[in-house]
Amino acid sequence: MGRELAEEDPDFVVTWPGKSMLRQVKWSDADTEDDAFSVAVAPSSALPHDPAGRQEMVQDMYKSSLISQETAKMLIGWPDLDSELNVENSESEYIDSLIEAYLDAERETWTQADYQAPEGFIFNKVGAIRRFASAWFRARIDQRSLPPAERLKAEFNIALLSRYIRELDALMVPPGPPPGAGMPAPAGAPPPTPDQLAAPKPQAA
Q1: pLDDT of residue 76 exceeding 80
Q2: Beta-bridge partner residues of 25
Q3: What is the DSSP letter of 145?
Q4: pTM
């Protein structure tokens, strides 16, 4: 059907719906040869459908450290958790939207204002780095199968992921003590008075 539409309209494009945006690709670039690929259909769900069996399997997977606590809550599927999960999942959805935006970014139209640095109030910083790192590794794997020109283009997207990971990792490092902190007072020196402690410190020239 796509080929028939392309015959009527040479500029016919196909739309790929992402999680937060749409991408359009010319049909001539998206069309493939017949039998050029195969499709494997995965089962709809490997989890039991009854609540008790589903809860037991999810709990076993969580105890075995196969899934995180956040994933366990999502897989259990209790209606009472929906409102709470919406609060917890909003951060994950935001992180995923950034990953998608950076992977879809194009150097020609990208500006510094398009980049969103990690916020210090991100609650699950470790989880955010894990999601970004997973996208980074997947992008590196996919880059190997691209032609040389496309590899260079993918390098720009990978660099955006790397930048975010480095900046978020820096937010997780606790600040070091100020200069001179923890140094013992000179022998025989009197303890500082309350006025001395409250006085502003001299600024360096």
Answers
A1: no
A2: 14
A3: T
A4: 0.50
